[in-house]
Amino acid sequence: MSEPLIPPKKKDPLLNTRAGHVPPALRSRAAKAMAARAGQGRFVLQACEDCAHVTYPPRDRCPKCWGALTWQDQPRGAVIEAETTIKASTDLFFRNHLPWRIGSARLDAGSMAIVHLHGDVNQGDRVRMEIKLDRGGNPALFALPEKETLNMADDPQLRVFTADPKYRRILVTDGRGPVGQAVAEALVKAGAKTVFLGNNDRLMRYPGQEQIEAMEGIEPVPLSIADSRSTEALAAQLGGRVDIVVNTAQHTRGGGVGFGGKLSDLQTGLDLEVSGLMRLAQAFAPAMSGRSDDGTNAAAAFVDVASIFGLSGKAGYAGAAAAAAARLSLIAGLRGEMAQTGIRVMSVLTGPIDDAWHQDIPPPKTAPVQIARAVVSALQQGQETICAGQVAKEIFGRWQADPLLTIREETQ
Ligand SMILES: [Zn+2]
After folding, report:
1. Which pLDDT does position 91 carry in this prediction?
2. Staple 365 to which of 85, 267, 354, 401, CB 3.0 to 4.6 Å?
3. How close is the Cα of 275 to the center of ligand 1, in Å?
4. Is 0.85 surpassed by the pTM of this model?
5. CA 270, CA 250: separation in Å to the nearest integer?
6. Looking at the structure, do residues 275 and 346 belong to the same domain, yes or no?
7. Which domain does 105 fall in, by range?
8. How confident is the model at residue 13, as a pLDDT?
């Protein structure tokens, strides 16, 4: 079993915050290709097209026959053949996290690999392998116990590779809608210390308000990300106390491009969803970046919940799809910037949400609880891109196989 995580003590304001170094970057194209797949939770390794040899770490050609390599999903099992504990390192990141256990694993996929070890994994054990992204976004093999162990997620080495909500303080931007409320509730249940729940109009009551605000761990805060002053004021007030930001803002209205769409709806949507995302990032990202290695409740992640139709467009919802497309682009840019400072940036992709604004779309739709589950899972796994519910999964699968065909299918 792992030692249970201890709730962090109040911080001594006179102490320096530990600088958030990130592990050294892997710059090869093959390493980036592995990271892109690992970010979706897949376990992939390169296999040779000629001799079928499976190889790790990522490289450009087969080390046995010089053949071309392709990425393939692989079995996750392995056996740990040797282990060692690193007690000294010149790397700035690892120096702060010593001692650090690694081992060599014989992968069921057919090759040997140097891997990071969970505290409950020992020499000779059968393990379950995952490809985790380190805080700089580089892929690394991590060996987990084959079966769930007590306090497994609290393992200090594993926690470096995730953004687990346990004991963290989290801002959810829009508490007025069912998505924000479901996300807030799920985060409290997953062990978050505090969920700051945004409300853009304190004078107007909203459905579900009494119930969600009465919940232990929920702290309502005034926030309108459509307003720079409101966003900056909250960031100044919460200062260095937000470890995770989850943006659930959305403004979905029906209408086409040349037919039936209202320009005012488009402008409101772009201001809230696109400019709003940038306001939020500019207000919170710098302070978070300074606290990315600040102990148990270090700042860890920036999560954006956006429509899957940002990838494909959507007939009858042109403006909403355009706002989602811009969000996905901004999030990709932010991910690159935050990787330098050790904060994870995640996208939760949703299908049409089961609410009043998607009445014209036939079922199946995505329920707010499915989105909440995806947010918690992405944080617990350290996953970059995750689909909430079947509709988003199905569209994402088609889009990966053939992006242009999916655009045609969704817009014609
Ligand atoms: Zn080969």
Report:
1. 78
2. 354
3. 49
4. yes
5. 10
6. yes
7. 29-159
8. 67
